[in-house]
Amino acid sequence: xxxxxxxxxxxxSLILSYFLTRLTMRPIITSWKKQSExxxxxxxxxxxxxxxxQGKLEYMFTKPNKTxxxxxxxxxxxxxxxxxxxxxxxxxxxxxxxxxxxxKVSMRLTEPEHFLPDPIKPFKDIIESQxxxxxxxxxxxxxxxxxKDKIKQLLIILLDNATKYTPEGGTIKIYDYLDNGKYYFAxxxxxxxxxxxxxxxxxxxxxxxxxSRTKPTGGNGLxxxxxxxxxxxxxxxxxVKDNHPTGSIFTVELPVRHKQLKS
Length: 263
Ligand code: ADP
What we know:
By secondary structure, the chain is of the alpha+beta class.
């Protein structure tokens, strides 16, 4: 009996400790796993442009008698890759700062017409120069507490994507509306659209729907992850749905401070 009770006790404590360890360690293991996945993805993304630059430099080194004009193509490719590295490291720093909560945030009370149209102006010219239509309808009179620079960055990400993934002749719109006392602004496009399976994943770090399609557009798969973080800082929400008949609508919900109709 002593042996049986000892074994039973030992078995029960073993099972209990197994489940306890799983429960308490799970968040640590998950976050460690996520972090190592992130480092792995980041290293992979950094390696590609570095390998291209290294290849080009080594090639140029084997031909010391060539002039800059002869090597213009290699130099231009290397510069493109340096720019890619630059934007990638900036995005990585941005995400790391937000993870460590060291991002400087400067919230101010303001109205949509004072912070939304600002970043749009340069985009209007770019979009129209690519034979695409651009429409803006920001009209809600409401007070919101936002960091203007961060919202600017968020809008640039959404407009940049809308432009990248919309072919010539398409339309990109930015508009705002109130629904059930909540404030929303949206960027819609008539571009390639996003499948239901990809709609949640695209906000993850380094996620790209079609890597071969994204390569010429110069994306690194971090834009929407940063967008999500900016919305999080504002205690808002971001979601994507289909535009009809084609394209996507990215909508941002921002908490309303207090309703204030202008006279
Ligand atoms: P990227 O820098 O690759 O554009 P993002 O994080 O901004 O990275 O976007 C992730 C992926 O989501 C993109 O690679 C693209 O496949 C998809 N995506 C984002 N915006 C749009 C859009 N407006 N239309 C179609 N696909 C989009």
